[in-house]
Amino acid sequence: MKVPETGLLEGGRKLPVMEEFYTLQGEGFNMGRAAYFIRLGGCDVGCAWCDSKETWNASLFPPIPVEEVVERALQHPAKTVVVTGGEPSLYQLDIFTASLKEKGITTMLETSGAYPLTGAWDWICLSPKKNVPPRKDIYVRAQELKVIIQTKADLEWAEKNAVYVSPECKLFLQPEWSVAERIMDTLTQYVMDHPQWRISLQSHKYMRIP
């Protein structure tokens, strides 16, 4: 992974934005909610099943001023921004989220928790990865824990992470897309036996939207 030099990012005044789009949240607790998605380039977690590997090399995406991104977000009816990646926690996001909040925009983050979090967030979805486990201080800040399940053994990983989140945190198991049909019966039974969990589906893929 290549990350832009610190000087190019101007202390968080610029970010390597890969893409921006207005759509519906497809996963987790906020599924079906309209939001403006901002996908940042750069990730070194390296999940084999990642469906956005094109984000990994941040140097492919020239940093742009956060003010420009905020103005584009304001052009849409839903005043909610979801920052995803890649891995957003690689970057200094205080200036960006402050600019969003000044405009009355709700801020949501999707992160593996691999690096220290910056920025002011109304909702944090923590999706822990075995390759680079989350920092312990991030668990208690998460409103949502979403664990990707590829094999039955991943359920043990999910429970290990659930120990660290707050009692109010929403717990989700999400089948990895390529094995969803094969593992769905296992997940269904697991949630019925452990009702503190819910199932998250990648509904945007079923709807064929971004």
Question: Summary?
Answer:
With 210 residues, the chain is an alpha/beta fold.
Describe this structure in words.
Helix content is 25%, strand content 23%. It is α/β, with parallel strands linked by helices. The protein is globular. Strand 9, helix 6 and strand 10 form a beta-alpha-beta unit. The chain has a single domain, classed as TIM Barrel (Alpha-Beta Barrel), CATH 3.20.20. The two termini are 24 Å apart. The mean pLDDT is 93.
List the helices and strands and how they pair.
Layout: H1 6-9, E1 14-15, E2 17-24, E3 34-40, E4 64-65, H2 66-73, E5 80-84, H3 94-102, E6 106-111, E7 123-126, H4 136-139, E8 144-149, H5 154-162, E9 170-175, H6 180-193, E10 197-199, H7 203-207
Parallel strand pairs: 3-5, 5-6, 6-7, 7-8, 8-9, 9-10
Antiparallel strand pairs: 1-4, 2-3
Characteristic terms for this protein:
210 residues; alpha/beta; TIM Barrel; 10 strands; 25% helix
CATH architecture group name: Alpha-Beta Barrel
What does the average pLDDT come to? 93
CATH class: Alpha Beta
End-to-end gap: 24 Å
Oligomer: single chain
Number of helices: 7
Under CATH, the homologous superfamily reads: Aldolase class I
